[in-house]
Amino acid sequence: MTSKQADNVTMSGGGVYSLATRGAKDVIDAATPRVLEAVNQLGLSPASERFTMADMGCADGGTSLDMVRGVLGRVRELSPAVQSTVIYADQPGNDYNALVGILHGRTRFHSWLGEIEQAWPVFSGSSFYLQCVPDGMLDLAFSATAMHWLSTLPCNITGHVHMVGATDGEAETFANQGRRDWESILMLRARELRPGGRMVLVNFCRDESGRYLGNTGGVNMFDTFNRIWQSFLADGRIREDEYHRMTLPQYYRTMEEFSEPLVDPDSACHRAGLRLDSIETRVVPCPYAEQFRRDGDVGTFADGLIPTVRSWNQSIFAAGLDPARPAEERAGLIEEFYGAYHRLVLDDPRGHGMDYVHAHMTISRV
Amino acid sequence: MTSKQADNVTMSGGGVYSLATRGAKDVIDAATPRVLEAVNQLGLSPASERFTMADMGCADGGTSLDMVRGVLGRVRELSPAVQSTVIYADQPGNDYNALVGILHGRTRFHSWLGEIEQAWPVFSGSSFYLQCVPDGMLDLAFSATAMHWLSTLPCNITGHVHMVGATDGEAETFANQGRRDWESILMLRARELRPGGRMVLVNFCRDESGRYLGNTGGVNMFDTFNRIWQSFLADGRIREDEYHRMTLPQYYRTMEEFSEPLVDPDSACHRAGLRLDSIETRVVPCPYAEQFRRDGDVGTFADGLIPTVRSWNQSIFAAGLDPARPAEERAGLIEEFYGAYHRLVLDDPRGHGMDYVHAHMTISRV
User: The complex's ipTM?
Assistant: First the structure.
């Protein structure tokens, strides 16, 4: 029972993830009313004694502190004698020292621990591709901006670095992997949730208008990644096989793909008791682009945008480079890559940014 | 709700703790029959669905892997459909990346995860001076070689580095702190254990013959620590105030001190439902001294003994040094200290070693 997730996928550690991803917190804040509404529907009573929730794919836990604080507070309003457990789960390669430090108040982040009485965090190294807790233990499962990571890279993509640029058979291969992984994720949660439990999932998507992360009408961020790596290939700075391995193991699902196993009465997920309560798409604007629109400070814009991009894809791009290259040479190429992106933004900031496009779903377990 | 334990107390990280402490694993192995006997008395039946245990003060988790494997196996024999949760708890400054890595099979240690079906580890940053889980959640609590760490240093000791060398009022001050901390530890466990639950605690002690860790008839290890630091003081390598701050925040309890709150019907612990089932003292020989008796290789002996000593006291001695000294100077003094100990062993190995002297207790919650 080790993680099935690709070993080279790691978010930035040391608390850097939450510091670099203000937008990821904005997304969770935007989903919080939906989470609180799900809590209202759990059937908690003044006599309820225990409440257990999970944050799956929590990274360093900093981005969900306020949401969890809100949930625990609401639960105590409904059930004053309740004792709560919050399970923070991620893959085993996550930075647990940063996660424990943030929750236990050893950083500048404002933890809910010590503020909410009778509530305990625990930490799990089981990714969402594994069952994380015993059957029926969870009242509430939450996950944000995590389940686009595939359990495995189904193929490299020709001429692009992301499935949004895939065509024909490769696009289909990614869609199939995305469907299998989504069903696996849901079937595991069907075991973990108690009957009457709820799940609120906030995942990157391709929305009804074809928008997705970093592609909301301006410059397409994934095309920018691709253009820079292709220029490195043309310059001979990287080789063809390295460019080919730069494929990100992600899949951005459509509304139909998210909904299908939850609304088809013949699907395994539906038979396991999962039902789609509601789904909507939401765009949260890139906080760095927003600030740039207010203050026009292009340097600050580039200095904010590049680290937030870098926090989630550096490990994959670095793993694409030939391991036979000396480590410093690989590190140098990665610096050059983000440096080139930084210069692109400085030269012409118009249209750059990383707006977040998410599907927000509430799923119940009957 | 942050850790009350002194911030400068940390076991070696990066998996070094378990590698350096073969003896600590020997101690847990010696206690395993007692733990399995406690499992037999939990009233588990073929219909039992859930089992929850905790390892408190787990460090990197490596030393208890085999014990936990044994417990989970026994539980499955008694209750074939059971699903188990193992809570690994330590203070927030523990190395959780090492702990998660060892449990999730990312190291050379042989984890039970993946071998025992339907069992999950989770990790907690709550020390045993805090409640770690909701009321009544635990069937079994285990702790080894951890609860001698006091919640706070009650005073520095004049002329020695450890309470085993304290006299008069200072000895009494330590005894009082030891009693208060022991009662706190027990009262918290009384909340966490379900009625009928059991606790097996394996703690450093002063036994019926006055033996304790590193003092079983040969050279007294704590006197050796003290002699070396005193020589550093005499040489002017450290100052008086630094020597004074070298006091280890530990207390080694006697059998009477361990038993008292569990057998006195008027005590808070007894009223909270805790009962002493049994207590015994056991000596586990220093594995490095044992090997030296077999092979006579003094170099290997010194190379094994010093790191095992160092793994649990380096952080305290280092914190005693004046923080105004440059970091390299402090690191250098620490190296010199263990180097001096190493040379003492090389020069005359007779009587050196770190035999473990533990009280093994089983406590039930009525």
Answer: 0.92
